[in-house]
Amino acid sequence: MNPESAGLRVDDVNGITRVGFVEQNILDEANIQEIGDALGALIDSMEAPKVLISFAGVAHLSSAALGALITVNNRVGSKNGELRLADIDPKILEIFKITRLDRLFEIHGTSAEATATFS
Prior knowledge:
The chain is α/β, with parallel strands linked by helices. It has helices at residues 29-44, 63-78, 90-98, 111-115, and strands spanning 8-13, 16-21, 25-26, 50-54, 60-61, 82-86, 107-108. The chain has a single domain (8-114), classed as Transcription Regulator spoIIAA (2-Layer Sandwich), CATH 3.30.750. It is built from four helices and seven strands; from the N terminus they run E-E-E-H-E-E-H-E-H-E-H. The relative contact order is 0.17.
């Protein structure tokens, strides 16, 4: 699965895989499945993945997208990797807090702050 065809921008900076979204709205069930599959394949291809997912420009996120993120988090954890989330719109961040997912994920205000926390 090609990350670009799933609507993801992926680049590697100093061993950290940075992932961003092309779309503003991550709501479509089929698209979320593609994103999950692409991220899963990406993580599976790495030894101890260091992944930063930036939500810059994302205005809406569905509950299915949150489910896919939990799966990604579990996959990264199973490979002794590290996952950081950053650049989350305040309205979306509120959803993370309401669902208590802010306790599951390591969330940072900016990509730069998140990048500095990788070991």
